[in-house]
């Protein structure tokens, strides 16, 4: 998979060299390109924003630099009739579809993703429309809160997607036993010492009885999900209203 990032803060993504993704890059499982949007400005001040039509506070990112940047990364020819545009352009935005583990899994099978990281009050709306003539476009929100720009959201998405690319995580088993991967929150984990500040590791985990351990872990996941994230529970796992009984 190739990932390109366009941003006015390219230095922000230096950290991607050190983490798990650094190893994936060295092993050529992931190719990463970070690009400064100002490379595609032509004025002395390298201007990337201007005042919004219709008035209002803040500034809007100008379409011209973005258009040239995406031309450079996507190619300028519109996708031929019936041909699938290979690249996907992701615009992190609070107005996007929610980023979820399911979406991360979907995006992990893409061959080329371009993250367009906007700042200020956002990017001129025509940029996404123009990009859609030669790539698939997805506006994605990391969550219902306000950030100063798309970089933090893109970083989180790149980590969530990158670790699902085959070969990036050493032991694929570890991808399964995690919150949200199987639709439930993960069970609590413990390691040595057996007793710490008077708190003992649950006996079942020291029993060697793998069936009992798996059952205990599943029950812990269900209980934690019921308590913290009842919205994640499948209907079947919720007790019938008023009866306290489970469906099915
Ligand atoms: N708040 C923002 C401002 C600019 C670009 C993205 C966001 C964002 C993405 N997900 C939540 O917020």
Describe the structure.
- The chain is an alpha/beta fold.
- Helices cover 27% and strands 17% of the residues.
- A five-stranded parallel beta sheet has the order 2-1-6-5-7. A two-stranded antiparallel ribbon has the order 3-4.
- Helix 3 links the parallel strand 5 and strand 6.
- The relative contact order is 0.14.
- It starts with a strand and ends in a 20-residue tail after the last helix.
- The chain is built from seven helices and nine strands; from the N terminus they run βαβββαβαβαβααββα.
- The longest helix has 19 residues.
- The chain is elongated, with a radius of gyration of 23 Å.
- Bound molecules: 2-(1,3-oxazol-5-yl)aniline.
- 2-(1,3-oxazol-5-yl)aniline binds next to strand 5.
Summarize it.
This protein has about 250 residues and is α/β, with parallel strands linked by helices.
């Amino acid at each position: 998979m190739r990932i390109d990032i366009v941003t006015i803060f390219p230095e922000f993504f230096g950290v991607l060299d050190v983490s798990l993704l650094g190893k994936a890059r060295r092993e050529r499982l992931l190719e990463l390109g970070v690009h400064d949007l100002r490379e595609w400005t032509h004025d002395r001040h390298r201007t990337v924003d201007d005042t919004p039509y219709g008035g209002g506070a803040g500034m809007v990112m100008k379409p011209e630099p973005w258009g040239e940047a995406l031309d450079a990364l996507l190619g300028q020819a519109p996708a031929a009739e019936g041909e699938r545009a290979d690249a996907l352009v992701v615009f992190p935005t609070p107005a996007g579809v929610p980023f979820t583990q399911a979406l991360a899994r979907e995006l992990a099978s893409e061959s080329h993703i371009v993250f367009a990281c906007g700042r200020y009050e956002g990017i001129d709306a025509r940029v996404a429309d123009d990009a859609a003539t030669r790539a698939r476009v997805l506006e994605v929100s990391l969550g219902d809160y306000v950030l100063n720009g798309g970089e933090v959201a893109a970083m989180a998405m790149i980590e969530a997607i990158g670790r699902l690319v085959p070969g990036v995580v050493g032991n694929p088993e570890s991808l399964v036993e995690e919150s949200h991967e199987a639709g439930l929150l993960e069970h609590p984990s413990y390691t040595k010492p057996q007793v710490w500040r008077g708190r003992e590791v649950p006996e079942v985990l020291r029993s060697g009885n793998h069936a009992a351990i798996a059952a205990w872990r599943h029950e812990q996941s269900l209980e934690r999900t019921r308590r913290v994230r009842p919205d994640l529970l499948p209907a079947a796992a919720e007790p019938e209203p008023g009866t306290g009984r489970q469906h099915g």
